[in-house]
Amino acid sequence: MRLVAILLLLFAVSIIQWSFLPLDIVLLIVITAAVIGSGLEVAGVAFFGGLFADLAQGRVIGGSSMLFLLIAFVVYLYRRRFDATHPVFLPFFALFSDLLYRWVTQKNWGLWQAGSLAVLAFLLRCALLYFGRANKEIKVR
Amino acid sequence: MNDNREKAFSYFLFLGILSALVFLLARANKIDYVENKLAWPFLVIEERLFQKKASALRCDPFEAQKIANLEEQLRKMTVDQAKMSSCLLENDRMKKLLGSPLPSDWKFISANAVSLGDTLRINKGEDDGVKDGAYVLSENLFVGWVTKVSKDYSLVLLPTSPGFRMVVIVKKPGQSEILARGLLKSEGNGQIVLDRVLQEESIEQGDLVIGQEGGGDLVVGRIEEVLPKTANIYQRARVLPTVDYEKLDIIFVRRI
Fold first, then answer.
1. Which ipTM did the prediction report?
2. pLDDT average, residue stretch B87-116
3. Which of A60, A64, A137 is the best residue to mutate to test the B interface, defined by the most B CB atoms within 10 Å of its own CB?
């Protein structure tokens, strides 16, 4: 059920993102899911997030899914090694993932967009901690 | 714990292989039918959102009340009148296009802009006669060229798109003499640069940057700033496109 809700969110965000926003919110959702989600959720969100991103942009489908899965897998592995609730963890991965994604798909770095996404990731991390979700989930796993 | 990790790894591996398979099949155009069906809801919603955004950008904020009244009046018009208004707008653009100094044998397909990312998506595709490499114009101004054609939609490579390169000439507005030749290319982040212009050629701010295709002059942009000279044999200039890609509505694709 949670996965379906996230997929609907991804669908809406991917459309709004490519119509209005210069920031890669779908990628941010994928990274956030990789920090707080279970293995199946993380992989599912990365796969469908990439698929929706490609469909919304008219790109060859599957490319972004591969990249999102790779990014999500790295974040998923590192969340066990480091403290995923650390203020730097989510913004760090948001920054470098966005740089990588933009470079692979658009051949430009988009520094200010990546920086803005990192700031957004920090705010999201604060919100998640405030609502107690991330902290609890990570401790359980 | 290890069990969970192995399970997670198998999910990633499975979906990774699936993504690679989908990517390869899509690249080889083997799943075009499925891709078009999946893209359809995105296309419909994005087109509406983009048109709303474009019309909002075209509006003067101080005239908002006046526009709201006009919109109310427009809503009251009959379906036929609405259709006629749409046709008139298209005809108007077509008239301007035909009146421009373009070769008379050029034929066009009218299309609507759907969404704008690093490329522009338009609502006409293979079924409407759009072909890869076709030039896209707004009135008589260069917008880009078609870089990918699907059944119902196409992607247009804009001068601001990564990887864009075009041989251009530079002229003063209202004059026919060619001042310089160069290579127009995208520098990423929406920046366009005119490169490979010989140092002895004189270019100035405000000069027109024009692409030449099949005997037609297509205005791409204006020189915004000539970059400081270096020891290099070429000089460079920053170019401002003449078309605001975010405000595009009806555009014309050259039929080839």
1. 0.85
2. 73
3. A60
The phi, psi pair for B107, rounded to 5°, reads: -120, 150
Burial classification of residue A134, based on how many CB atoms lie within 10 Å of its CB (0-12 exposed, 13-18 middle, 19 or more buried): buried
Q: Which of B117, B169, B159, B155 is nearest to B253 (CA)?
A: B155
Interface contact A141-B19, CB threshold 8 A = no
**How far is it, in rounded angstroms, from Cα A113 to Cα B123?**
28
- Give the separation between CA B254 and CA B145, rounded to whole angstroms: 9
Portion of chain B with pLDDT greater than 90, in percent: 18
What does the pLDDT read at residue A74? Answer: 93
pLDDT tens digits, A44-93: 999 999 999 988 888 889 999 999 999 999 999 888 788 777 888 899 99
The pTM assigned to this predicted structure is 0.62
Tokens 């991390």 appear where? A125
Residue B232 has pLDDT above 50, yes or no: yes
CA distances from residue B154 to A59, B28, B87, B128 in whole angstroms, order as listed: 10, 17, 22, 10
Tell me the CA end-to-end span of chain B in Å, nearest whole number: 61
Q: How far off is chain A from B173, nearest CA to CA, in Å?
A: 33
Gyration radius of chain A's alpha carbons: 14
Q: How far is it, in rounded angstroms, from Cα A112 to Cα B109?
A: 37
CB contact under 8 A, B8 and A18: no
- Window 5-24 of A: residues touching B by CB (8 A cutoff) are 14-16, 18-20
Cβ of A92: how many Cβ atoms within 10 Å? 18
> Quick one: DSSP state of residue B189?
T
- Cβ neighbors of B31 (< 8 A, separation 6 or more) are A61, B22, B25
Closest in B8, B20, B23 to A39, CB measured: B8
Phi and psi angles of residue B238, each rounded to the nearest 5 degrees, phi first: -85, 135
Q: Are B135 and B240 in contact (CB under 8 A)?
A: no
